[in-house]
Amino acid sequence: xxxxxxxxxxxxxxxxxxxxxxxxxxxxxxxxxxxxxxxxxxxxxxxxxxxxxxxxxxxxxxxxxxxxxxxxxxxxxxxxxxxxxxxxxxxxxxxxxxxxxxxxxxxxxxxxxxxxxxxxxxxxxxxxxxxxxxxxxxxxxxxxxxxxxxxxxxxxxxxxxxxxxxxxxxxxxxxxxxxxxxxxxxxxxxxxxxxxxxxxxxxxxxxxxxxxxxxxxxxxxxxxxxxxxxxxxxxxxxxxxxxxxxxxxxxxxxxxxxxxxxxxxxxxxxxxxxxxxxxxxxxxxxxxxxxxxxxxxxxxxxxxxxxxxxxxxxxxxxxxxxxxxxxxxxxxxxxxxxxxxxxxxxxxxxxxxxxxxxxxxxxxxxxxxxxxxxxxxxxxxxxxxxxxxxxxxxxxxxxxxxxxxxxxxxxxxxxx
Length: 416
Prior knowledge:
With 416 residues, the chain is an alpha+beta fold. It contains nine helices and twelve strands.
């Protein structure tokens, strides 16, 4: 009697089966085995069985091909685990252990590393076989090489992402285009508004100054015609009227400067700040103030007019509020891309609760009849400095002088 050592464990053919019938049966078995091998090869599926008692693992031929191993090489579960991709190893061991403990099964996708270092994707299926006492004795399963499928999925995903990124970029470009059109429309409207504001400011300036000049002339004529008969009170009132007309004229000029601040630009040039400050001090011609200017004030690349206006207002503010004999110091220190300029005085100072208020337009801390001023100077300073990308601030307390500082770029940025 003929035995099949691959599929029969020492058994014999049934009684009554002749030699001819046995040969036919063997041939049929071989044919079916060949069909199974061919089917596994076509589907890239291999089958396996792991004996838990002996740790012996039996693999089909296709599984050896998938793993890139010699079919004659003995294999064990430990060797199988060693072939797993390190990132998947712990997960797979837990999955198999859990299946054995629960007498269950599993389906999982994982990776293996071939002897030549190639990585492949495997669809693994396994189920536990128990004896008549319910004790796990074997684990059987299949492993299918799904690398081509995974690669195709990755390519499809990459194409999807590429398409998505293209569409997103197109949407963003369209949004930016629409936003640019909106900004262009707003810019045009702002430009029109600025032109109208300039026209209004100049017209208002002219219309307001004309009657002021007329009033001033009338006051002068009255004083000249009646100078011998004017009482001291009348002279005082006429003087007060002239002072208030001068204040009104200064207020009109301040409003004009404030409306233009940060909008009318010059070509940045090299500005010797020390020379600019000394010229400003000479222009202000302080009577009793003592002004000290740091010898090595820097040279900056800047628009000269706004920088001159800032120093003129800060120095003028210190002279106006500092009192007789006020001492003023003008200094500069480096601050990265900026210079920090400061104008300090030993005058009455500014209480902490007013440090924010003083930068507002038309804000003054003293009655205008006590100290001549429009309340525009510091607000103009703030607007001019911030238009150049800088900052302003004050360090002071009541009765201990004041230090006004501002940051000014060493080199004007493009578009300023």
